[in-house]
Amino acid sequence: MTDKKDVLAGAGPNTRLAHVGNDPAEFHGFVNPPVVHASTVLFPNAATMEKRAQKYSYGTRGTPTTDALCAAIDELEGSAGTILVPSGLAAVSVPFLAFLSAGDHALVVDSVYSPTRHFCDTMLTRLGVTVEYYDPSVGAGIASLMKPNTKLVHLEAPGSNTFEMQDVRAIADAVHKGGAVVTLDNTWATPLYFRPLDFGVDISIHAATKYPSGHSDILMGTVSANAAHWRQLWDGNFALGICGSPDDSYQILRGLRTMGVRLERHQESAMRLAEWLEGRDDVASVLHPGLPSFPGHALWKRDFKGASGIFSIVLDGGDPGRFKAKAHAFLDALKIFGLGYSWGGFESLAVHVNLSDRRICKAPENGPVVRLQIGLEDMADLRADIERGLAAARAV
C-alpha cells in the first residue's frame, strides 16, 4: 500500500500545505498539533538524564509544536533540518554567526535587506569579519571577488525594494569552487515559488513573519540547511540559545495551511496592478520581476514558479529636490493602503523606500521609489486608492 508521505511528495502545493508538518495519529487524531509550553523536561532516571537519551530534554531543544513546524518547512524546502528564530533578521544573523569567524571575508549582495546590511556593518565588522558588497548581476563573475578567506556569500533574490534578480545557480557553483557557504534570503518567493537548495544554495532563509504567517501578528524566522551544513547551523544556534516559541510556531503552522491560496491572490492582484501602472505617464518605471520589461525577467521566468505580492514603482519625479515631497504626498493620500514596513499580510501597505545605503545598486534618478505590498483587498478598490496617491503626487 502506498504510504501517505509518498502520495504527498507528488501532490500539488495546496495539498501538501494542508498536510505537512504533523501526523494526527500522534495526537489522538487532532488535526492540529498541541501547543506544548516547556522549559523543564523530566527524565525517568539519572542514566537517561546524563545521556539525554530521550526525544525531548529541554525547551530550547524543541517541543512537539516547534518540531511540527520544522518538519513542515523541511518538506517544503527539501532541507535536512530547520531552526526557528524570533525574527526575519535573526534568520540572517544566526547563520552568519554560525559560519563566520574573525578574519573571514563575506560577500553580500548590494540589494540586500537594509537591516542585514546594518548587522554586517556593525556586529560582523566589530567581530573582525570583512564584508564586501557585490552587484546582484555578477553571476559566475562572483569568482573574481572570492578571496582565500571568503567563507560566506549571501544572496537575496529578488533584492529588497528594487527587486534585482540573481543567477543563483551560477553564483552557487562558482562560490562552492572557492569553498564558501551560500546563503539566500528567499522571503519574497517562499519555497512554493522558489526552492534555493535545488539551485545549489546551502542555507535558505525566510522571514516567516511575512507569507507563512499571513496575518501581520507574528514575528519569526526560519533557517533551513542542506545535509552538509545542517549540523554546523544547529550547533551555532544552540550555542546562541535562540529558539522560536511554541505559540508563534503554532500560528505559523496554521498560516501555512492557507499560504498557497493567499499567494495566488497576492500574485494575481500584484501582476494586474503592475501591468496597469507600467502604462501610466506619472510612473517612470515599475520594478517587478514578473514584467517582461524588467531587466531580470528572464532569470525569474527560468527559475521561479511564481511571484508574490510586493513590488515597487518609481514615480515620475521631475525636480530631484521634490522627490521626497512627491513620495509623501502619494502616501498621505492613500486611504486603503496602510503606511507600514512589513509585508506578506492580508492588508495592503506602502512605504517610501530609502536607498541611501546602496553602494553599487544606486537609487533610480528619475523619481522616488515607493514599495507596494498588495494585500487581499478587492482590485478595484486598490486601484482607486493608488490613483488617489498618483493624483496627489502629480500636484506636488
TrEMBL record:
Alphabetical list of Pfam families matching this protein: Cys_Met_Meta_PP (PF01053)
Enzyme Commission no: 4.4.1.8
Enzyme class label: lyase
Domain of life: Bacteria
Reactions catalysed, as given in the entry: L,L-cystathionine + H2O = L-homocysteine + pyruvate + NH4(+)
UniProt record similarity statement: Belongs to the trans-sulfuration enzymes family.
Official protein name in the record: Cystathionine beta-lyase
GO biological process, one term: transsulfuration
Organism this protein belongs to: Mycoplana azooxidifex
Keyword Lyase: yes
N6-(pyridoxal phosphate)lysine PTM sites in chain numbering: K210
TM spans (from-to): none
Cofactor or coenzyme needed: pyridoxal 5'-phosphate
GO molecular function, one term: cysteine-S-conjugate beta-lyase activity
Keyword vocabulary terms for this entry: Lyase, Pyridoxal phosphate
